[in-house]
Amino acid sequence: MAAPGRDPFHAGSADEADEAVRGTCEDASVCKRFAVSVGYWKDPYIQYFVRQAKERKAPEINRGYYARVHGISHLLKAFLKKTECNCQVINLGAGMDTMFWRLKDENLLPRKYFEVDFPTIVTRKIYNIKSKPPLSKPIMESHSGESLLIDAHSLDSCRYSIIGADLRSSSELEEKLKKFNMDTQLPTLLITECVLVYMTPQQSASLLKWAASTFQTAMFINYEQVNMADRFGQIMIENLQRRQCNLAGVEVCWSLESQKERLLLNGWETANAIDMMKVYSSLPQADVKRIEGLEFLDEKELLEQLMQHYCISWASKDSSNLGLETITF
Ligand SMILES: C[S@@+](CC[C@H](N)C(=O)[O-])C[C@H]1O[C@@H](n2cnc3c(N)ncnc32)[C@H](O)[C@@H]1O
């Protein structure tokens, strides 16, 4: 129900739509925690952000998450290697992502790691960090100098910042990032993992354009749905709509071509897009063998269909000639 005194079809429904989008943060982290608990990949930190799933997740969902996490981390690490970690990473719509802690454990922290999400999500993340030493200690360890800023809505340390902002307003985003010492001259990696699809095509285009015009040397990694015009895609859309979650940006998710085109039309010099089946096929044989041994999968076809309906696209612009356009799977 919309709040009293509000136009039930506009103000109320916009808030409700945003609330449903924020709800996807919980979905993603619960699924990741479950897959971690089965042994798909190691993440000692996710347990501090989200409860264990009440029911088992299907093996095809777990494998899908494995491919997603592997795919993003493969491209991220390639960028860190090209820049020798002399860079910054900005994870947009980061939710309860734990990459900062995992990179610190591997001694791969960039000069600064930023995360942005809606203020209510950020408040929840910061609350967990403050109350759980395995999360707060690594931040203190990587911090030096002046006292670290941490309140309910933001966290700012030397190497890690969390910012509450709406990604649909680039000016708000830029202002807050600058306040926390974002350096537009540093090679910069921006990540949107299952985020752009919740914005209209105009809003995601304006975010991509802002990123391409703000940083001279940069890479953008995006994970989201693809091939959504077919029957399977339509069912995915209907399932989400049933939970009041509207994929406002679904038009861009028609094909790999439309994904690439959006990047190229919004200021990026090179663009690639591959579906998750391709990512899965690029995994080393030993990894495939290990994860396929974790759970019995009855429905191979369903797994393939699911993987063909998600993709990773990435783009670069490379004024420093670091060779970013050669990054691939
Ligand atoms: C599906 S979740 C993914 C979370 C995380 N990237 C992951 O993959 O685990 C989508 C996230 O994007 C955030 N988000 C979506 N639209 C946003 C916006 N306009 N401004 C800020 N955050 C947004 C949501 O709050 C949510 O945390």
TrEMBL record:
One of its GO terms (cellular component) is cytosol. S-adenosyl-L-methionine binds at residues 68, 93, 166-167, 193. It catalyses: [phosphatase 2A protein]-C-terminal L-leucine + S-adenosyl-L-methionine = [phosphatase 2A protein]-C-terminal L-leucine methyl ester + S-adenosyl-L-homocysteine. GO terms for molecular function: protein C-terminal leucine carboxyl O-methyltransferase activity. The keyword Transferase applies. It holds the Pfam family LCM. The keyword Nucleotide-binding does not apply. Gene3D superfamilies: Vaccinia Virus protein VP39. It is an enzyme of class 2 (transferase). Keywords: Methyltransferase, S-adenosyl-L-methionine, Transferase. Its EC number is 2.1.1.233. One of its GO terms (biological process) is regulation of signal transduction. PANTHER family: LEUCINE CARBOXYL METHYLTRANSFERASE, LEUCINE CARBOXYL METHYLTRANSFERASE 1. Belongs to the methyltransferase superfamily. LCMT family. Methylates the carboxyl group of the C-terminal leucine residue of protein phosphatase 2A catalytic subunits to form alpha-leucine ester residues. This is Leucine carboxyl methyltransferase 1. The gene is LCMT1.
